[in-house]
Specification:
Distance between the termini: 59 Å
Number of strands: 7
Number of domains: 3
Helix content: 40-55%
Order of helices and strands: EEEHEHEHHHHHHHHHHHEEHH
Largest sheet: 5 strands, mixed
Number of helices: 15
Structural class: alpha/beta
CATH architecture of the largest domain: 2-Layer Sandwich
Length: about 350
């Protein structure tokens, strides 16, 4: 006998439902708090059913909800030592499409739990049970670093806006990125007025800032048309620059921690491809988690939104383009790998020149 347990997880609690193979409710919706007492009640519920039915198998699943499901998922995994229980995380998009295919319009926690259980019954081939979460902690660490990178970009954009009023002559040095010497210079001399009073010999002590360039910058600052020269502008520019520097130091230290923790043959294998460095290899591995999740290349491509998306009506094909429905982080990693491979990998360079430059 098989039963299907679906759990819709929210902050602090979860809604559950148990269905039979014929999608009939064996146990209607019940809500449990995400506490020790709540987890004990879930155990007692499962224990009652396993005691009642001999040879019972229960298939359980929770949606991936950005980490809120981890406590319940871990608890269910621990119950496998006692019960004949299979546990999985399911993609919310798949559950949603299955619910819409059943013409269900209303969405509540109870209905969502029911939809998860029905998804297990309707699409057993799409469910990967009992997957090993060996890198789950590192994935959270990686996502934290990616968030730090995004905040760094936002802070740089804010600095660019203010710096244009505080010392516009420095804007020409900020191209694709912010050089370390420029960041340190802004911290020491945040406005054109403070830069004009600085000694070039002292500024030349900043790494990668030559004495000749320092003299030029001081001379230009004395003739600057900067409009933001007050004390508040000076404090603001300096603090934003210090924040960017802090982001850089934190991102570097966090990546070093991840590199020390994630030592496996897969990293070295990925790096044998010219164009993939250590950071890209780590990103690929943590985004993919395990290649066994994808039975074919098409599944891998679709998961990260790299497959073409189009609409066909009659004899027309409308809007052929990349779907971009998957992980943005993954596409960013692959984009950077492709840029490096075009430059340093002769095989990829030849493909690029044949299909893009000559196509």
């Amino acid at each position: 006998m098989k039963l299907y347990l679906g759990g819709d997880v929210s902050k602090g609690y979860a809604d559950w439902v148990i269905l039979s193979e014929k999608k009939q409710a064996v146990l209607d919706n019940f809500q449990l708090d995400d506490t020790y007492a709540g987890h004990c009640k879930l155990y007692a519920t499962l224990e009652a059913y396993f005691g009642k039915y001999q040879g019972l198998e229960i298939y359980a699943a929770v949606e991936s909800t950005g980490g809120y499901e981890n406590n319940w998922f871990s608890t269910l995994k621990s119950y496998q030592k006692v019960f004949n229980l299979k546990v999985a995380r399911v993609n919310p998009a798949g559950v949603n499409f299955n619910r819409r295919a059943g013409l269900k319009r209303n969405v509540t926690d109870a209905i969502s739990a029911l939809s998860i259980a029905e998804y297990l019954i309707n699409h057993p081939d799409n469910i990967k049970y009992d997957q090993d979460d060996q890198w789950k902690s590192l994935c959270r660490h990686w996502n934290f670093v990616e968030m730090q990178k995004q905040q760094r970009v936002q802070t740089i954009n804010q600095l660019e806006t203010i710096l244009y009023s505080a010392d516009p002559t420095l804007m020409r040095f900020k191209k694709d990125n912010l050089p370390n010497w420029l960041l340190e210079l802004i911290i020491q001399c945040p406005t054109a007025e403070t830069l004009a009073k600085a000694r070039p010999e002292k500024l030349a002590k900043i790494p990668y800032l030559s004495l000749a360039r320092a003299k030029t910058l001081v001379a230009e600052a004395k003739q600057s048309i900067a409009s933001a020269t007050d004390k508040n502008a000076e404090i603001l520019v300096s603090q934003i620059a210090r924040q960017i520097k802090a982001f850089d130091q934190n991102i570097k230290s966090q990546m070093q921690l991840i590199e020390r923790e994630l030592t496996c043959p897969e990293i070295e294998l990925l790096k044998t491809f010219k164009g993939i460095d250590t950071v890209s290899a780590i990103g690929l591995l943590l985004e993919i988690e395990t290649i066994e999740r994808f039975p074919a290349v098409k599944g891998f491509s679709c998961y990260y939104g790299l497959h073409p998306k189009f609409k066909q009506s009659g004899d027309k094909v409308i809007g052929v383009r990349m779907s971009k429905q998957g992980s943005k982080n993954m596409r960013k990693i692959l984009f950077n790998i492709a840029k490096g491979a075009i430059t340093y990998n002769p095989l990829i360079t030849a493909v690029y020149e044949k299909n893009y430059l000559m196509g």
